[in-house]
Design brief:
This protein is mainly α and 49 residues long. The chain has two helices and no strands. Helix 1 packs across helix 2.
């Protein structure tokens, strides 16, 4: 069952990328921005120690 869900998720991701590349790019851009923000916050916390 888990194998089928993994395949279904992979197929959905490929389908989404092919049908909406700008939407996929926006999701990646937002995720990268969130990770950068989290890294900056962690850096400020560590420096404050």
């Amino acid at each position: 069952m888990k194998k089928y869900l993994t395949w279904a998720l992979g197929i959905f991701v490929v389908f989404y990328l092919l049908n909406s590349p700008s939407g996929a790019a926006r999701i990646v851009h937002n995720a990268a921005g969130s990770l950068a923000s989290a890294g900056n916050s962690l850096s400020r916390f560590v420096n404050a120690l």
